[in-house]
Amino acid sequence: MRERGVEAVTIQDITDAADVGHGTFYLHFKTKGEVLRPLIEHLSNQVHDRVDRAAHGATDPALRMSLGLRIVLRAIADDPLWSWYLGSGTSFVDLVAGMGTPPATDMRNGLKSGRFQVADLSALTNFINGALVGVITSLQQGGRADEVADTTAEMVLRVLGVSAEEAAQIARQPLETH
Fold this sequence. Notes:
Layout: H1 11-18, H2 22-28, H3 36-55, H4 61-78, H5 80-87, H6 92-99, H7 101-113, H8 121-140, H9 145-159, H10 164-171
Helix pairs in contact: 3-4, 4-5, 4-7, 4-9, 8-9, 9-10
């Protein structure tokens, strides 16, 4: 799928590669996009590890949220499977499920501690859905992944109630993820 693109790969290609029949495929998946879910979960675990390394044990939800966004958006830019997964209509709720618990935990911690000021979680979810579409569009139009990721992280922090000056500072910290 990375080599030919997800759209070019057929269910027949998948079943041939797995040496299973169509019936077996449909016992486990409704669409070929669902085949990517375990891969996305694996890639998500790698992203979480990178965020933990970059955070160096920091507990500030704003820093962790920014690092997570910046790292995952760079990963999306680097891997066509991420872009397809998100561009295929995956909602923020499904993305968070695919990303696992760390981003949701950072959000809850930020809300609980008062670090984040969100009056309407539903509106925030819709905003982030729209932001993901915008990010993917920007990347597909040749936007620089680092600048798109940093700017998106800054804007999300501002929406969460972090001051403009602090959001800019947090979203522009050097990434050390080795």
